[in-house]
Each structure stands twice: as structure tokens, then as C-alpha cells.
Amino acid sequence: MRNSPNERTFFWTQANALLRKNLTYQKRNVKTNVRLILFPFVLCLLMLLLQKLIEKQILDKPENKCGCICTKTQGDKCLEKECGIQYSDLSQVGTCPIPHPPEWPPLMQVPVPQYRAVKSIFLPFLDLPDESCRKNGSCPISMFFTGNNMSFGEIMYENMLPSTLTINISDITGSMALNVLGSATKTGYSNFFEPSFFSDLPIYLLQSQCRQNSTFSVSVQLASISMQKEVKCAQVLHLWRNSSWEVNDELYKGYYKSNTGRQINEISAGYDFLNSNGNKFNVSIWYNATYKNSTGSRPIGLARIPRSINMVSNAYIQFLLGPGNEMLFEFVKEMPKLETPNKFDLASLLGPLFFTWVILQLFPVALISLVYEKQQKLRTMMKMHGLGDGPYWLISYGYFLALSVVYMLCFVMFGSVIGLKFFTMNDYTIQLVFYFIYINLQISWAFLLSSIFSNVKTATVTAYIGLFGSGLLAGFLFQIFVQDTSFPRGWIMVMELYPGFALYRGLYEFAQSSFTGDTSGTHGMRWGDLSDSTNGMEEVLIIMFVEWVLALFVAYYIDQLFSSASRKSALFFLKTFQKKPCPSFRKPSIQSQGHKDFVQMEKPDVSQEREKVEQLILEPTVNHAIVCDDLKKVYPGRDGNPEKIAVSGLSLALPQGECVGMLGPNGAGKTSFIHMMIGLTKPTSGTAFVHGLDIRTHMDGIYTSMGVCPQHDLLWETLTGREHLLFYGRLKNLKGSALTQAVEESLRSVNLFHGGVADKQAGKYSGGMKRRLSVAISLIGDPRVVYMDEPSTGLDPASRNLLWNVIKHAKQDRAIILTTHSMEEAEVLCDRLGIFVGGSLQCIGNPNELKARYGGTYVFTMTASLDHEKDVENLVLQLSPNAKKIYHISGTQKFELPKDEVRISNVFQAVNDAKRNFTVSAWGLADTTLEDVFIKVARSAQEFETLS
């Protein structure tokens, strides 16, 4: 068993090898990376150009600056202009200097007539007006009163509203302040203009009782503009409630949404006098805070609550001092302001959508790379050559993270250098934290989704559909929900669980903060702003961080569960806490007892091999590299088909320095056997030991000393042959000059060194060159055990002969298991041969032994005329009475002659004698070939299976 220091050494050795390979791979894709980084640069530059175009063509025009209007023109040319606030255009407030803000009469917020409180199924109170008043717009304005002393409350109400109307024609605006006026319009962003005087809704005069003809028009002079404004009396209905909780209950019962999206059954205000009396004034005020401007940035309390406070304060003063005593509330006005230029930040307007696409560009890069390794089985190939899961995850994750960090830094720097307010207005630390968490979440999702896809094209199409679809759905659907204050926040958080929407929400908050800060001349988002209930950045950061951790955990769990064809238990992680047994030869839990009848029918050589294995299990020795003990693989039946026995009770002992060849027809079980030995599938029963390590429990240790040449070449298309060997050499802990020497020797041995072939990308190799590179990879680093699956497939005779020499040299100090369909290759390379048929080993031995054991005959062939076929048969029977005819067509006959009955000299003499009696066109005598042995063994095994 390896100790901890070695494990740590192997870990960092593997991590270093994979990191170097990834850097080399990245260097090959430098053009793709440049194009990827240029995408945000071009987009930011395009936004800057559009920004400058808008500023030049629209914002910088004189008529759009500070309320300037042209008073004298000549054709299209303006000769004279007048600058200053033009009261017909509210947009000028944002740019003009206002040293003397206008004074506005204080107003109280009241509901519009069609939404004033009436009796309904929700509010069945008898003192509320009937719903019929809404038809002619005559519903009174309701105010709630409560407190400990009802009589005190009645006095206060009577003092709150003036009993007479006071209008001074010479000072309309000033005299309006002496009355209680109300408005149903929404408040503006600022108080430089009172929206009530610029809307179609009337101004309401609040009275206890309206008289006839109580609607009149007044002329209001504002700077240089005179306007007519309708003033309409509105009756105020005072309603006493016994406690504050009754008021609350009634307020919120009436606060619900109609089909039009507005509240109905609204009240104007509520007053709780609590324990107020002649010695104490203590009051709480309810007000409707839903009347905000379109940006939602200023509640009505900042503009129209002061009148409610003034009303109740004057009522208490009159309660104490009598009528005629009051605090005069003359006007409200804003603070003076300087001139500010017209501002329009295009990046803040379009940034959330376009920057979502910019950042999501990284997702297909990671996903496609991971699926490519999965499709090409490169991850499996690296694992079989010793790359552990820990180094793979550390380097792969770190590799994508480093790419993403560089990409995002370029993105932020590009935007900042060219001066986009989206970047420069917001705190950079918030931006970096947001982007860092998101790119980690994106990488985790790429690892998680890579387990779903097995084809690069499918993954690519899906990733880019998700990329553009996420941006469009977020920009044209999700943003509507975010801006709608009535939409439940809980559902917003649920939608933000989708990473694309979470990314968009964060970018949207950055855009809103930069736009507002630029317009108001303040700053963008700061850390303190995250505590604002209207700012969704805090919840987005929390959601993304938690989802990042969960997605990474689930991705790793699924990878461990399904990373190879051998599925682990769903609770495999619990084994970490168990004490690991020391690897050694030990009898597997499933004994070979169930194979007694089968053993009795085995050939002597196979039975002898089984006995040898059982002896090695009891008395292990270091001389044997591979020991397979009763290895069995059964695939379960599907779709009503019976189960398939791929390997049936294989026992095999392979010493160091020996090459064993596996022969057999297609479907015989050779590949299933190899897959079990290299860890792609787990045995159904039995086990195998590789240098004392059990393939069921210690494959990670076996991988460090194993080489594999798979049936199909598993190579990176953009890496050269030299770079492949450098990577796999480093995995085997080769360093420095030893690594360089091993790579050069490997390249020379497979004839890939000269002519610049070693530094040519593997994607440009021919099939034979790829095959030779795969063999070189399997032998790099001197692995102690090597598996080669048809290594010479597709090679020309010269290359095949060269490869045979390499394998013959390599087998001197390592154990090799080789599968092939070439009998010549098997005879040249293999010390022993095993023939597989129907999942079982039919025979095993060196080629000469097999030919002697299963092919102890000569094959005699003679061609004569049809008239003399009988003479040929008589000739053969004279040579060997037990001769067997195996072929006959058009005068050509082929016979098997037992070697113990025939002497070669007698055959030659008999043929010479026959030529005197009839014409012999051709004849031949041949010894049994390995191919004949293979055919004979396979045919007899298949006949036995058919009979059984």
C-alpha cells in the first residue's frame, strides 16, 4: 500500500502534467481565445460610439439644453433664443439651474373618486357611503379617527378643516395655502414642479360639507406662464373606530388589486389620538404610501404628508387656544440647484441584456471542452494512465476559472478605460465579488451539465440556444417581474435560481445604480446600498454562492457515480470513513464452487491454469504480475432477452516478462475481459490482482503502473505526438532529461521522430501514425502491465514489422496482454495464446504446443480429373486408413492425415507412383497452421454450445 507522502507526490505530479497539457492546448487555441476576448471589447466600443453619436446628435443640441427655446428663426436657423425653465416641459428640470425654486401650496394626498372607500363585501361598514356614488364621482373622502377619548377626537376633527373658503383674487397661490387642498396625482421625482398643476385632474378643496356650485376655476401664474386650474370641493367623511387594530383591519381589507391593477376602497388618512388630552398631545398618522412617481424612488410622505401633520397640529392649537390660532403653512419648495448637463448612459440602458450575453459566452467554452473529452474518451484514457480524480478536478476547474478570471478582468477593464458609467460608477469590489461568484457558478454548472451530454454538437447547439434565450427571456420577461412592485418577491427569488436570471438581475442592479447616480450627480452602487430592500444584489449574491457550492458538490458526486462504465454505489462517499484494507492476494467472496461441472469439462491446459491460479492465491508470489481468479462478467437481460455471459469463470496467471495473446471470434468476450482489467467495468464475480492490487478496490493504485493501447485511438486533435508523450510521461512521474530521453526513444521506436512528424498535430496524422502513437503512449514511463487491443490494426507491412519489434523488446520486463485477429502477429509476439469462445477460455499454451495439441495432422491436397477422384481417395487411404476428407470441389480434394500414421517420404513416393497411372494437376502437403487450430477450437466449442 502506498503511504501518504507518495500519494501527495503522485497527486502533484499528475496535477502538474495535466496543467502543462492544458496550457499547451490553450496555446494551440490562441486565435479562438483572442476572438473570444475581442467580443466584449468590440461590444463596449460599439456602445461608446453609439453613446457619442446620441450625445452629439441629440443631447448637445442647443434647443435640448437647459430649457432653451428659439424665439426668432430664419429658415432652419435660430437667430434668437431664450433660456430658462419652460414650464410646459417638465424634462427641463433635470438640466436647468434653479436658483429660486417655485413655491407650491401644500397639498394632501387623496384618492381619485372611483377608488374612494365605499361599502362592499370586503368592507360591510354602515357608515361608509354606498357604491352608487362612484357613478357620478360624488364619493366623499374618508378619514379614520380613533383614540382613548372619542369626544376629544370629535373636537379635533371639527378643528382640522376650515369652515369657510378663503380666496384672495390678487394672490391666488398664496390664498390657496390658507385652505386645505388635496390632489390625486402622483408625486414627482422632485418638488421643482408640483404635478397637480400640470395634470388633467382637478385640485380638491377639502370641506366638511360641500355647497352647491362648489367647483370653480382659478388662474395660477407660474413664472412667465399663466394657467387655468379647476378647483373642486370634496367632502371629507370622518369615521370613528374603537381601536387602532380596527383601523388597520379596515385599511388592509380595502387594500387589494382590481383587474386594472389599482387599489380600490382607499382612504385618505387615519389619525390615532392615543392618550391625547388638554395636557398631552400624542398622535399617530396613517397615510397611503402607494402614490409614488414612476421611478418608485420617492414616496408621497416626502411631499404631501406635511399638510396632514399641519392639519392635526392646528386642530390641537385651536383646542387649547381657541379659533383663529394656527400655524400658517404657506408653501413647500425644493432646495436651489445648479445647471446639470443632459445625460444619457446607453450602457446602463442596454448593459443588462448585452453584458449577459458577454458573460454567458464563457459557458459554452467550458461545457464543450468537457463534453469533447467525454466524447473522445480522453478522460477515460487519462484515468487509465494514472490520472486521479483529485488532480483532474483541481486542474480542470482551476483551468476554466483562470480563463474566466482573465476574460472578466479584460471585460471590466475595457469598459472602464473607455469610460462606460456602468463600470466606473459602481464600486469595483462589488463588481469583482459578483463576477467571481458567478463565473464559479457557471463553471460548476458546466461540469454538472457535461454529465448529460455525450455529443459535442448537441452540447454546442444547446449551450448557445441557452445563451441567447437566457438574455432574451431575462430582458423581455424577467425584468418586467422585477420592476413590478406588486409581483411577489418570493417568485423573483425562485426565478433567480436559474443562473441566467441571477446574472441578469445583478447586471440590472448595476445598471440602475449607475443610471440613477449619473442622473442625480451622486455615486453608483456601494456596499451600504445592499441593505436597501429595493436592491436585489444581496439576495442574488447569496443565491449564487449557495447554488455554486451545491452545483459543485452534485457535479462531483455524479462524476464519481458515473465517471466510468463501472457504476459506484450511491453511498460511495461513506467508504472514505472506513478503514482501507491492505491490498494482497485473497480469495474473492464468490467461490468457484458453482463452476465444478464446468471445470470437469475444461481442457487439461485450462484446468491446469486454474489450479495454478488457486495455488497462487494461497501462496502469493511477486513473480506474477497478473492473476485472474474465476473472473466472470454477466450482462443483465433487456427487452425480454436472456442475460448475456460475456466472460465465464476465467482463471489466468501472467508472470512478469510474458506476453499473452487473446484470440477469439467477435463477441467472444475478449473486450469485456480487457474492460474489467482496466477498470471500465466491474466483474460480476471473481476478481483479478495486478501486482497484488485487487481490481475491485484498488484500481487507482493499478493505474499508476499500467499502460493501455485502446482499440480506437484516443488522442487530442490539436496536440502533437511529442506533446502527447510528454503529458503521459509526466503522468508516470518522468521529469527533466529522463522525460526528454524517454519521449525521443518512444518516437524513434515507432518511427515518428524524423521528418517533423513528432511536432505535427495528431489530427493531421494518418490512421497508421495514430496507431503507432497509441502504442508509444501505452509504453511510455515503463509501465509494469500493458494492455494492447489490436495494436497493429491499419498498419502497412513495414510499420507492422517495426511495431512488432517494439513490442517484443518491451515485453522483456513487463507483462503484456494483447488481443488480435492476426494469427501471424499472435505467433510472432505472444509467449502464450488463449482462445476465447462464448466467454470461456477453451485452450491456453504457446503457439507450438497449441498446434501440436489441437492440430496433430497434415493437410494433403491433390487436384486430378473427375474420372480419377476415386483413385485419389484410394491413394490417401493407403497412406492413412484414418484420413478424413475436409474439402472437395471440381476434382480438388483436401484430406487431414494423422501425423502418427504418415511419413513424409511415403507421401512423396505415393504421389510419384500415382502420376504414372493418372494425371495429377497439383498436389501439396502442409503442416497445421495456427489459423487451423483457431478454426478447429472455435468450431468445436460452438458445436458443444449448440448441443448443450
From TrEMBL:
Its annotated compartments are: Membrane
Q: Which is a Gene Ontology cellular component entry for this protein?
A: membrane
Q: Does the keyword Transmembrane helix apply?
A: yes
Regions that span the bilayer: 36-54, 349-372, 392-418, 430-449, 461-482, 540-558
Primary localization: membrane
Report the superkingdom from the record.
Answer: Eukaryota
Q: What is this protein called?
A: ABC transporter domain-containing protein
User: Could you tell me which residue ranges the ABC transporter domain spans?
Assistant: 626-863
Q: Give the organism, scientific name.
A: Lupinus luteus
| One Gene Ontology MF term | ATP hydrolysis activity
What's a Pfam family this protein contains? ABC_tran
- Family statement: Belongs to the ABC transporter superfamily. ABCA family. CPR flippase (TC 3.A.1.211) subfamily.
Cross-referenced PANTHER family:
ABC TRANSPORTER A FAMILY MEMBER 3-RELATED, ATP-BINDING CASSETTE TRANSPORTER SUBFAMILY A ABCA
Q: How does it sit in the membrane?
A: Multi-pass membrane protein
Entry keywords, A to Z: ATP-binding, Membrane, Nucleotide-binding, Transmembrane, Transmembrane helix
Keyword Nucleotide-binding annotated: yes
